[in-house]
Amino acid sequence: MLQMKSAQSSEPLAEAESALAHGDPASAIQALSAYLQSHPKDTSAMLMLGQAYASAGQDAQAEEEFQAVLKAAPGNYIALAALAELDARAGQLEKAEPLMARAAKLSHGNPQIRTEWAVILARLHKYKEAQSALAGLPPPTDPAQLIEFHRLKASVALGLGSNAAAASEMEKALALQPDDPRLITATAMAQIQAGHWQRAQSLSEPLFSRTQDPGIGLVLLEAQLGMHSDFRPTLDSLRSAKLSPPDELAFRQRLAEILIAHGEYGESITELRRAAELDPQRPDLLFNLALAQFRAGRLDEALASAESCKALGDGAEIEDLLGDIEEARGDNLAAARSYQTAVALAPNQEKYRLSLAVEFIRHKNFDAARLVLKQAGELFPKSWRIQLAQGMVEYFAGSDVEASRILVHAAELAPEPEVALNYVGDIQMDRASAPDPAAIAQLCGYADHHPANGRMQYYCGALQFRRDYASGDKSQADEILRRLLAAVRLLPKDAPPHCELGRTYRWMDRWQEALRESETCVRLDPDSAQSHYHLAQIYQHLGQKERSLQEMKLYEAASKLLADENARRDQTMKTFLLTIQKGTPDQN
Q1: Fold classified for 429-579
Q2: Quick check: 343 and 353 in contact, CB under 8 A?
Q3: How far apart are CA 345 and CA 32, in angstroms?
Q4: Phi, psi (5° rounding) for residue 127?
Q5: Which of 12, 170, 463, 548 is geometrically suited to a Cys-Cys bond with 540, CB 3.0 to 4.6 A?
Q6: Global pTM?
Q7: pLDDT digit string, tens, across residues 43-88
Q8: Are 376 and 353 in contact (CB under 8 A)?
Q9: Running DSSP on this structure, what letter comes out for residue 8?
């Protein structure tokens, strides 16, 4: 609580100040109450009485005194700050924040008040505002206050995503009290969030060896996992910790979370199974166990755990997981039934309809996938994921024109359209006919806004070239060259930009440049039959007949290895199935 010395030197006020300073608010209340009987308008005494009541935990009486001060002196920033502290102590942060903000303004930037304001802002997760409140503040000189100051700055930095800055602030706090176990633990945790695994281990390992505290053991385990060092002795020690059942349940869950976060699904099963034993009626514990078993490839165990979870109460989430497990076990009919049940249980959730559609796509049942996605599209007309899946179904079914149209729309809806645009670009590049104008416009528009995206520069330039090559229009040749040169600069080790640039130079009769880029193209992608063919033509034009014949032989050999159209679509399907997101519905 902010303290203010009395402007008067009367003996009762001096006694009250002394009592407060010695932690005796009751004596201060008695002295100040008696004094105010004869000096009812002394705001300094009223303020001190409010502080005494607050120190005694009598918040209602404290608030009454502070309000009385503000009624007499509306600009008294200490009373405002004190009221804000009372509200913050009661958990009423939204009420406390504007009061403390006003106090900071009226105090002309009093460091203590600005710091308390930043504390409230941080607790409200208003980290940018908290950072502004702290900007330019001199660090406190008192060591205890300085530690809290650095911890506050660490909290703000963490909230802003500046994990390294948060770790740095915690190191400054730890330097002031290097043997404090709580500071050691907090600093180690901050270093973990910053990805500084070795520093986290160096802090947590001695402390865990000394205390065997499970909490610091978890920090050490995560540091060792991050370093890919031998974590099993620490894990064994944590597993042998003796805890009460409620504490053990929470501990086992946290231990499993850490293991899962670092891909140790098999190890997490032990913890999740124990958690489920401690509270067998909790379906979430069985669900997490089944999920870990599934990700560890222990499919029969995963199925048994999932069925046990379902027995406690069916739901879309467990049916969706059952579908994944059954598909992995090769029972695609059972998988489809589970995904359909998930849709029936949660008809207004996009991800379950996507799971069902993906199941049909996986087994090339495109008509069924179209039907599911058509219904989903009607329910979620602004879902880019649904549009993406619809477009890919059309592509897998052989409808390139319709696929591109839908995927362009998916890109328009997506907050990050690059995933959809990559498929648009690949589909357009595979077409024998002239590219679609709408697809070119979308790809080039994205390339204009993302000049450092080499792949988009490539798609735009290559498709513009193919469009103009078919029509014989060379008016945009300089623009095409600019795009492809940018793609080559940004993707120097990728063959396609060099191949298309070589073709463009050849089209423009710039034969030496065409030769250079085409030779680079076949060096980077020696299995491309088309590239060998184009290089053979360039050698023929330049009079290098032997090299031309050699390239034609390479062209013929590569042609025999060409994958057919269906094989290419199958490969694209595998990529799509791996990358399609099954996350939270995107209705924005």
Answers
A1: 1.25.40
A2: yes
A3: 66
A4: -75, -35
A5: 548
A6: 0.78
A7: 999 999 999 999 999 999 999 999 999 999 999 999 999 999 999 9
A8: yes
A9: S
